Amino acid sequence: MNYPYQIKTREAYDKAYKQSVEDPESFWANIAETFTWQKKWDKVLTWNFKDPDIKWFEGGKLNITENCLDRHLEKSGNKPAIIWESNDPEEHHRILTYKELHFKVVQFSNVLKNNGVKKGDRVCIYMGMIPELAIATLACARIGAIHSVIFGGFSAQAIADRLDDAQSEFIITCDGAYRGAKDIPLKSVIDDALIGNKSIKRVIVCTRTRTPVSMIKGRDVWWEDEIKKVETHGNPDCPAEVMDAEDILFILYTSGSTGKPKGVVHSTAGYMVWANYTFVNVFQYQPGQVHFCTADIGWITGHSYIIYGPLSAGGTTLMFEGVPTWPDAGRFWEIVDTYKVNILYTAPTAIRSLMGFGLEYLKNKDLSSLKVLGTVGEPINEEAWHWYDKNIGKGNCPIVDTWWQTETGGIMISNIANVTEGIPSFATLPLPGVQPCLVDENGVEIEGNKVNGNLCIKAPWPGIIRSTYRDHERCRQTYFSTYPDKYFTGDGCMRDADGNYRITGRVDDVLNVSGHRIGTAEVENAINMHAGVIESAVVGYPHDIKGQGIYAYVIHDGSHGDPNLTRQDILQTVARIIGPIAKPDKIQFVPGLPKTRSGKIMRRILRKIAEGDTGNLGDTSTLLDPSLVDIIKESRI
Ligand code: WTA
Q1: pLDDT tens-digit readout, 31-47
Q2: Is the CB of 517 inside a 6 Å radius of any atom of ligand 1?
Q3: Among 244, 268, 291, which residue terminates a domain?
Q4: pTM of the complete model
């Protein structure tokens, strides 16, 4: 495959950027032309941010799997599409060529149909990182079902909420999943999520760990048995469903500053073009290269840069089941060496954690195949950037620091490997199609350079969020109402003298823990579920490895004596309600929370105390009970 829209020089970037702003319709039409359409679009773009109502390639008909699979069969059918590396280094890896992947996706599409899944149905996918996860996802897309992948670390309660919100009737899961030394009983978590549930019609269970599972008659079926049925009686083909450009491709739940996680809705054509365009350009992907994105498919990074970006480009994507530190901290480097990985895309938290293990694990690992390194998910500190550059890239690989969000579908602000300059801890420049701006608290745009503000985007790009599932008003309120006619990212940002962007972190009540988004309100709600807890307030604090840690201030009625046991109980409650990823790192019991006279918690003060910056807490005179602050300061942990 060649990529006529791949930007190769700084001049070409400037030209593409200019055109994308001045004439977005012809800019994106030219790119979209290179994809496979069942019918061309009538109109490239119509939009307003007021409702919001955004349509890309309206009237166009397509199926994303024809772009990710069928169109590569003739020339690249025998090329590896997915290289899968097991959690267990001793277990044999699997390679699926484009032909094989196509075959398996078609086969599983027929399984879905046999089980009653129809176009538009929501299918929840809760699996470990095995090729069947990619197959299930693509099979949904093939028949026009909407996939909602849920990260394997979420609890039964979190799954139940998502099933309910998406009104899903189908689940695809595994008996269990391996993650390092752990064996996670996925099916049993699903069973817990389904207690009392009457709407789920079918649970398809793929075998991985052979953990004993309960299979409920009439509801639960084995993946392998269902495949046998289509093998013997089925049609070996499954034509790709005709989808409108704006039909929903998937829902992905993400945390915000209020309420429960919301289902971010992405559409078919715009998302496809954006995932592909950003993949091909930012990483400067060349045919034949091996791309290793270490994210889990349960997050947007996995959707866009393990599945849809690389496969739509006919690339080879490496999927890793395990964790970076098991059996030892050399796992990534061994994978790079074994498969001659060319592009490594990971999170700052992983880099910081591996950095802590020292250079010993790099010994005898040949990393010379690496051409491009990438980071995503949180700001990267300079120390980690330099370590990555020196020890992994050996000073020869550009590092692309890619800023984006679940809601943006793909990378928004990033340097382009070997084309535009990388600067440690800067995402640098917007990609073509992205018009960032900084605004002050009043929404007034801050012009010029060397300025700080809240990061907004002024115009739609193809991968922009279309809605929040079944609650469009929430989408409008969350993203399009804070600043009229702008998409608000929730991030703070600095623009330097040369116009480079540096993300400074969230300005709302959303934490970024190890690159995972967690709403403080969500954690508070979970803590408050625990018996004896009267009230709580959660803030972030700087954490050496995770980027941000979770600090919880809890008012407890003192029952059950031993505070350490109560802490453990609270952690258990949070793990049950959300999942282990949301467990607070620190829990401080307090007699009260600092509130204004109108009852608002002064988080600014709690944040400062959690950060250890107790010297100057600013004006506390507006507090209902200023003396509380001293008590909280003294009992800080
Ligand atoms: C943060 C992940 C600094 C940011 C793709 C954003 C980053 C949130 C970067 C989205 C980066 C992501 N530098 N911060 N390169 N990339 N972020 O939805 O706060 O899981 O709003 O999407 O992560 O997280 P999400």
Answers
A1: 999 999 999 999 999 99
A2: yes
A3: 244
A4: 0.97
